[in-house]
Amino acid sequence: MLTAMIFAVAMMSVDQTIVAIAAPTIQRGLSLSSTGLQWVINAYLLSLAALFALGGKLSDVLGHRRMVLVGTVGFALASVLCGATPAGSGAATWLIVARLVQGAFGALLFPAALAIVFNSFAPRERGKALALFFGISGGLTSVGPIAGSFLLPWTWRAIFLINVPVALIALALTYRARPADTRRPTPIDMRGAILVSAGMGLAVLGLQQAGSWGWGSVATWACLAGGVAILAGFVAFELHVENPLLDLRIFAHHGFTVDNVVMGLLYACFLPLFFFASVYAQVVLGDNAGKTGLYILVIFIGFAAASQIGGRILDRRGARPVAIAGSALGAVGFYLWAERLQDGFGSQWPWIIVAGAGIGLALTPVTTDAVNRAPRGSFGEVTGVTQTVRYFAASLGLAVLGSVLIHEAKSDVTASLTRQGLPHSVVAQVVASIDSGPGGHSSSGANSAIYAAVQHDFASSIRIVYLAMAGIMAFSFLVAVRRMERGVPDEVLADGDAILEGAE
Question: How far is Cα 102 from Cα 44, in angstroms, rounded to an integer?
Answer without folding.
Answer: 7
